[in-house]
Amino acid sequence: MQYYNFDKTAAFKTLSALASTGKDFDYKAIDAERVRNTITPMAAGLAYSYAAKPVTPSVLDALQALADEQELVAKYQALLDGETMNTGENRKVLHHLLRGQLGNDVLFEGKNLGVFYRQELERFSTFADAVHAGKITGTTGKRFTTAVQIGIGGSDLGPRALYLALENWAEVEGKKKLNAKFISNVDPDDASAVLSTLSLEETIFVLVSKSGTTQETLANELFVKEKLKKMGLDSSRHIVAVTSETSPLAHNKAYLNSFYMDDFIGGRYSSTSGVGGVILSLAFGPDVFKEILSGAHEADALSLEKNIRKNPALLDALIGVWERNFLGFPYTAVLPYSQALSRFPAHLQQLDMESNGKRVNRFGQPIAYSTGPVVFGEPGTNGQHSFYQLLHQGVDIVPLQFIGFVQSQRKDDVIVDGSESQTKLKANLAAQIAAFAKGKNDVNANKEFTGRRPSSLIFGRRLTPSSLGALLAHFENKVMFQGLVWNINSFDQEGVQLGKTLTRKVLAGNSGDEILEAYRKLLEI
Amino acid sequence: MQYYNFDKTAAFKTLSALASTGKDFDYKAIDAERVRNTITPMAAGLAYSYAAKPVTPSVLDALQALADEQELVAKYQALLDGETMNTGENRKVLHHLLRGQLGNDVLFEGKNLGVFYRQELERFSTFADAVHAGKITGTTGKRFTTAVQIGIGGSDLGPRALYLALENWAEVEGKKKLNAKFISNVDPDDASAVLSTLSLEETIFVLVSKSGTTQETLANELFVKEKLKKMGLDSSRHIVAVTSETSPLAHNKAYLNSFYMDDFIGGRYSSTSGVGGVILSLAFGPDVFKEILSGAHEADALSLEKNIRKNPALLDALIGVWERNFLGFPYTAVLPYSQALSRFPAHLQQLDMESNGKRVNRFGQPIAYSTGPVVFGEPGTNGQHSFYQLLHQGVDIVPLQFIGFVQSQRKDDVIVDGSESQTKLKANLAAQIAAFAKGKNDVNANKEFTGRRPSSLIFGRRLTPSSLGALLAHFENKVMFQGLVWNINSFDQEGVQLGKTLTRKVLAGNSGDEILEAYRKLLEI
After folding, report:
1. Cα–Cα distance between A85 and A102 in angstroms, integer?
2. Shortest CB distance from A31 goes to which of B406, B497, B515?
3. Residues of B classed as catalytic
4. Which pLDDT value is given to residue B163?
5. What domains appear along chain A, each with residue ranges and CATH number?
């Protein structure tokens, strides 16, 4: 298998030559037939609709040729088979293996990692069941009613987004076992505020740090331990650790239990490991977490399809590349018409921008083309009353990713003016897609909508554990495929290191750096 | 006073000629003296530091000349004096007048609007005091313990961001009177979930819609009324309205009380009217809300200063224009190192993108230059473990707006490795500013930081009601000044209309529009 820079491929030239096809795309010609013919089924009953994306059959053919030339599916298979895809850090990339096996056995230092991951899954499933059964309790013997995750970045955004996505579903389906809360920021107001609302004797903490050295997480751990101590509670009966086996948190009697992953599970890809699994299994039960895994696994399997028209993650990735590199759009907005997905855009922002916000290729050489876009978003319809003004009538064009569901989660609704709120929600979604694509002429330029603003739609029947898992894996795989197109390493994050180094310098005393010392003075550090 | 398109000004030419000064700005030369000399005091003890922005004295002089040529401060004064600045809708723009008077009396249809706004402020202050004293209760006579805002867009994001910003401060300062919750989305899961957690007999609802016709808000109002009815509660004893006097919600016996604003208070600028004032006065007491107003008023007064080096909102606006129009950056990130400001970026996203996401000038003519950028952000240090990778090592440059405070709000902290968490928070902030500006050379390109990424810092002693008010008004005035530079109307939002029209079409039955009908089928509307 060969790894080429994107601008060295034949497909790059073909696509460059086609750019005007995208720029002049006839949005007004989108009709019912195009909507019907531009739907790619996704896993777990979801579907990807790209009628309102500026792609013609010839563009799709060129994107297919790109996928073939760059051997994107073969490279994904190599990743599944355990090849060292995180080149910078010399690591395998194995988050798919957490969900099921789609390649060869992956062996490392004599260990079958698929077996190891499944064992850990069963270990924390059993643990969660014991908590729910009241067999494991805190210091005073009271049952745990709340689980609090202590983690940051990948140990926070993904698990938090998934928890919020299913909290209401679980409640109405009778699956809610424990409340979950999250402490992430080193800002002491975060931990202090969360802890002030809790009955600590009924609280179990999930301390998550792969390395066991994350500054914020260790500070918050001690914050929690001091509060437990003040209440006369034994912290070793209230904290479990999720970490790697080589971390200082591992095999440590200071914790009630410890669950393990390894360096082959990147933070932003770790929601389907113990990083997300422990808190979600405690909150909703291990069966619900396993349904998330099963939806994700189905999406992972679908991503092996070589025909881009049948592989939604690959297709989504390639359309994104088309928009980024040939149509020149530097951002993309994620707009879920589902309040349950309120923090899903923040997770995708991390997933995408941390993975593909790179300016060197997988061999560490600078590249000369655009990579990952800026990603942002808020739930609809809220966003409609906020930043959509710029999306509709701004000078620049922002590609849009809509997400919507036929049914609500709670099925608790009201009829006003002849329609349910869920119907209004969906009507708004349909209206926005049409408005962005087609616009509206008006003699008053201030009331004119130029339209021609691309969007795609992921839709399904209801947001459930399996469709949520499929949605999560769809975006993980999309980001992976884009990284492979761009020939970058989507699995490291060297860009976070310099800040850490300079922070340590500031904390160690006089840094000897004039600008650091000047800001130390301003902020009274 | 003359209103010119930006590209017709002499300053536009001067700044264009200076662009290379910004592009070649020597970030490595930033030293302690520059940091000291590039601080502009703001209201309420805050300060704006722009050492790490690519501006030289000659650029600042050219920006001063732009401010003078475009008569920005005189136009602001005209706005304060009640001139019709919302040209598209033929309306005055009077949100500053809510905070205090800085110009002539503003009269409309025989009414002195400053007097009217103060009367309403006193009316809802008295009302909140009566609720706190237990003189006003719900149907069962129990005291209100929770206030729930029903509103969307400007009636949600700003008030919610301000509530979250002060919730912890209020708790530790003994000012917390009621809990506040928010229902915004037409997604029925939003209202259903919020209501499921409440004791309705102890809940007062604040229904906010200026027009009294907002689809989402009316649907959620009925949602609430049905739940109240089911509990045997009289909704007219549990709901107050905040609206204009001409709306169907006004002077309506269906509500416990009604408080008024008018068409001269735009949604995204309405946090300091009853839209934010009623819920914040209920939550924290009217005195706290008046402190917010006082901080905002101080910022408004400071914005009248003609010397841009002494007018932080104007300076911030002009540096933003410099980056947008001459250095070509299409986005900006807002990064508060304060968990309390977790939703402040979402408010600023609305404020900025809805105000300045425009492609026609104030006379309704298309313009040929860039206007408002895409705005996004999350609190630090959380963002450091998320999208900062792209900010540090991405292909494109994203200008950054940091915000930080010397002290935490709750003053509940822990010492780990010799420093408090608040100190770590600030050390991270200082480190990031330095890292983004100066970067780091490395023989390994993957570990290299090119630096040269601009940022500014707003800092202060502690986030309090008055500093929060100053912060809010700073950004409102910044956005206003940018709109004046671009010669656009920052106070209308025609871009939200088409979606509303098409939604009504879908809800009314067969829309006769092929694409709408196709999506109706997909989403089973």
Report:
1. 16
2. B515
3. 354, 385, 500
4. 98
5. 6-94+294-489 (3.40.50.10490), 95-290 (3.40.50.10490), 497-525 (no CATH)
